């Protein structure tokens, strides 16, 4: 079953780093997932997130305000 991953962030360096880490984990581990970048501040506010970047997996906020390690992302996706 394909996961829906959203990266909430306005395009800051940390947000870009998180996108890179998540993309690498998904491709390196052949995980079926859709990665969506959410940069619209109104859309981000709907998640009630004040610190970006935030990682949302299947509509659950898993990480906010920091860039996770690859292992951490892999654990969240498994």
Topology overview:
Blueprint: E1 3-8, H1 13-28, E2 33-38, H2 41-46, E3 54-57, E4 60-64, H3 70-77
Parallel strand pairs: 1-2
Antiparallel strand pairs: 1-3, 3-4
Helix pairs in contact: 1-3
Domain Thioredoxin-like fold: 5-77
Protein name: Thioredoxin family protein
Keywords: Disulfide bond, Redox-active center
Description:
This protein has helices spanning 13-28, 41-46, 70-77, and strands at residues 3-8, 33-38, 54-57, 60-64. The chain is an alpha+beta fold and 78 residues long. The protein has a single domain (3-67), classed as Glutaredoxin (3-Layer(aba) Sandwich), CATH 3.40.30.10. Strand 1 (3-8), helix 1 (13-28) and strand 2 (33-38) form a beta-alpha-beta unit. Helix 1 crosses helix 3 (70-77). The longest helix has 16 residues, at 13-28. The model has no long low-confidence stretch (mean pLDDT 96). Residues 5-77 form the Thioredoxin-like fold domain. Disulfide bonds join 12-15. This is Thioredoxin family protein. Pfam families: Thioredoxin_3.
Measured between the Cα atoms of the first and last residue, the distance is: 11 Å
Characterize the largest beta sheet: strand count, sense, and whether it forms a barrel. Answer: 4 strands, mixed
Q: How many separate helices? A: 3
Portion in beta strands: 25-35%
Q: Could you say what the CATH architecture is?
A: 3-Layer(aba) Sandwich
pLDDT averaged residue by residue = 96
What count of domains describes the coordinates?
A: 1
Question: What is the 3D shape?
Answer: globular
Portion of residues within helices: 25-40%
Structural class: alpha+beta
CATH topology label? Glutaredoxin
Helix and strand run: EHEHEEH
The CATH H-level superfamily is Glutaredoxin
